């Protein structure tokens, strides 16, 4: 998998315990790298499984799950977007099937996918197109570090590592 993403600027790459997380690799990217990463995975024989977002204190974390069906090597690409302007480039130009997933994510969280050719409501009524039922309230929103762990880090930027540092320190003190 690491070879497949050669030339893509990653923020963090970590090996995951597939029995626990459901994927072998977790890769954090800046929004401007998602189309390039999707294209590289497509060229390496990966298929897109789904796209969804999670609403955290730090913003929206958009997940893209990919898998190669002949080799069980499920990969999750993660893109963190600011809550005030959750916009990420569409990957429809690489995976046609991404259109449905991007529309669903927009319906439920309000994440915009720039250049999606058909970003009209999919599941929400048109009159409710700006009502995002899966957005959390400040009271119920959690921090990324309280929900996810980095895994076995291969490489990571200091900024992304800092998002998880407090949680990892707490886990070490509990041991």
Your description of this structure?
The chain is of the alpha/beta class and 175 residues long. Helices cover 27% and strands 30% of the residues. The protein contains five helices and eight strands; from the N terminus they run βαβαββββαβαβα. It has helices at residues 18-21, 34-43, 98-109, 144-147, 158-174, and strands at residues 10-15, 25-29, 47-56, 59-68, 71-81, 87-89, 112-114, 152-156. The strands form two sheets. A six-stranded mixed sheet has the order 3-4-5-2-1-8, sandwiched between helices. Helix 3 (98-109) links the parallel strand 6 and strand 7 (112-114). It is globular and about 45 Å long. The mean pLDDT is 89.
Order of helices and strands: EHEHEEEEHEHEH
- SS-based class: alpha/beta
Instruction: State the end-to-end CA separation.
Output: 32 Å
Tell me roughly what share of residues is in helical segments: 25-40%
Question: How large is the radius of gyration?
Answer: 16 Å
Low-confidence stretches: none
Strands of the largest sheet, in order across it? 3-4-5-2-1-8
DSSP strand content:
25-35%
Number of helical segments with 4 or more residues: 5
Number of strands: 8
Which overall shape is indicated by the principal axes computed on the Cα atoms? globular
- Mean model confidence by pLDDT: 89
> Biggest β-sheet, characterized?
6 strands, mixed
